[in-house]
Each structure stands twice: as structure tokens, then as C-alpha cells.
From TrEMBL:
Catalytic activity: an N-acylsphinganine + 2 Fe(II)-[cytochrome b5] + O2 + 2 H(+) = an N-acylsphing-4-enine + 2 Fe(III)-[cytochrome b5] + 2 H2O
Family to which the UniProt record says this protein belongs: Belongs to the fatty acid desaturase type 1 family. DEGS subfamily.
Zinc among keywords: no
Function in brief: Sphingolipid-delta-4-desaturase required for the biosynthesis of delta-4-unsaturated sphingolipids and derivatives.
Domain Sphingolipid delta4-desaturase N-terminal: 15-53
Molecular function via GO: sphingolipid delta-4 desaturase activity
Signal peptide extent: none
Organism, as annotated: Abeliophyllum distichum
Membrane topology: Multi-pass membrane protein
Key words, A-Z: Endoplasmic reticulum, Lipid metabolism, Membrane, Oxidoreductase, Transmembrane, Transmembrane helix
An example Gene Ontology biological process: lipid metabolic process
Superkingdom, natural source: Eukaryota
Protein name: Sphingolipid delta(4)-desaturase DES1-like
EC number(s) from the headed UniProt entry: 1.14.19.17
Amino acid sequence: MGYEGKQREEVEEGVMATDFFWSYTDEPHASRRRQILSQYPQIKQLFGPDPFAFLKIAMVVLLQLWTATFLHNADWLKILIIAYFFGSFLNHNLFLAIHELSHNLAFSKPVYNRWLGIFANLPIGVPMSVTFQKYHLEHHRFQGVDGVDMDIPTLTEAHLVKNIVSKSIWVILQLFFYALRPVFIKPKPPGIWEFVNLTIQLALDAVVVHFWGWKSFGYLILSTFVGGGMHPMAGHFISEHYVFKPDQETYSYYGPLNLMTWSVGYHNEHHDFPRIPGTKLRKVREIAPEFYDNLDSYKSWSQVIYMYIMDRTVGPFSRMKRNISTKKSE
């Protein structure tokens, strides 16, 4: 992979970079997908929806909404504790279910996936499922492309977040950066589906507040916020594409939290084969281990967060960018 040598030298000297890593080649996943399929065409048999996706999502949605109603008279400290140690896992699971649905991996018809995404969005408290799909598919098709891939931090973030304290604050607030970044960098006009998402979400929020009060609604919002910040589940935001090794831009996680996160940790496998549901991604590695075993990977998302904060050479600039016109990956 071609990349800018100056930044690598700075990293090796223990100094935080002052620019992104710049690649002069296409993203690696399309070419690796072609190589793997040429050797293991049976992987195509893994393509297609997860038949149990609806059931799994419905169970989590109902459990989280029930928990919110159960806490309507609880004190705020209890609500915060339960939100961090329980609700955060449920809402982050639903966020990653929406990620799965953005690839149409619950039903063959895209419209059914969109409706299920709006349903999965309900306990999260803030409408995001429809908009997320628009930007996420671009992240796959144009990984790292400057001004297109909204997964990459802005220059403002990179210049402000330079030490342990600012990186810790950034991690705590990363959901806000993740959500607001596209609004400032590449806003998209809302369509009818965004309106449907917004209307249904506000209706559910209003019902929760009207019948069970602000504490129940606050529990849902807190579950979303703390689960996307300084939390083990949120480690995947950093582990997936933050560059700890200059010649690798996507990293997988092979740890137990994959059981609760739709196996999003299998991230190289996911980018190589976005049409394979999370439940089957481990089989990709089993079938073609020689393509993945030599790549750096993680076993702990909590450790990734710690490394990101404490390593003075790593920060928002630790992402691979490219200016070239990349080929679509999907």
C-alpha cells in the first residue's frame, strides 16, 4: 500500500501526527474479495439474510422498553447505573442491528429492512436508522475517500484532540461527533423515509414521557449515550479503522462481545463481504484463514480504548485517507 512516509517517521519517533495517513491505492477489500472468491467460490453460499434477525431485534426492543417503564419511579443514580451496566448493551446492540439492516441482511426486500430499522431505532430515542444507511453505504463504497467517507474525523477534531484529557472527552462524546459530522461536512437533504423515521420516533418518545414520565425516557437516552462513549461496546468505533499500524487500515476484533454486537468485530471480513450476515462472518475466516490470520487484530475493545487514549502517537489523525476515485465495493 502506498502511504505518506513523513507521517510514519513521526509516529515512529513517538510524536502525534499532524496529518492523516494518505493512501495512493484503492481500498483493500474489493481486491481481497475477488481473490478469496476465486479460491473459495463456496463463500457465496453465505450471502443472504439472517432468518432470525427480526426475532432477535424484537426481543431486545421489547426488553429495553419494558426496562424503561419499570424504572419510571427510580432515582436518577439507579437509572444511570442500570443504563451503563445493562441498557447500554441493549441499545448498542440495536445500533449494530441497524448497521446490519443497512446492508439488507434481515429480509431480501430492502423496504422490509428499512421498516425493521425504524422499529429497532425506537429504544435509542433519537431517529437515526434511515440517515445512517445513507452515509454508511458510502463508507463501504468509498472507504477513506476525502470528503465522502463520514466515518473519518474532521480536521477540527484532529487539531483539538491531542492529549489524554482531550482524547478522553472525545471518546465520551464520540457519538455526538459521529452524528453531527455529516451535518457539517456533507449534509444530505432529508427524504420521505427520514420523515417517517422522525415521526414514528417522536411518537414513541411522546408515549413514553406521557405514560411513564421523563425518567423512563431519560433511561433510554442515557443507555444510548453511555453505550456509545467510554464503554467496552463502543471500542469498535476505534478498533475498526483507526491506524495503529501504518500499512493496515481495517482491523478485526475476535473477542466475546461479538456475541452481543452482531459480530461487527469481524470487520475485515465484513468489509470484504458486506452481503454476509454477522452470524456467518466467522465462517469466512474459517474457510480462508490465510487471508486474515496474518492481519493485526484485537481481543479486547476496552484495551483498544485505553491504547487510543494513552498512546501519544494516536489520535483522530490516525486514519487512512485517499483522494483517488475508488471503485465501489458493493
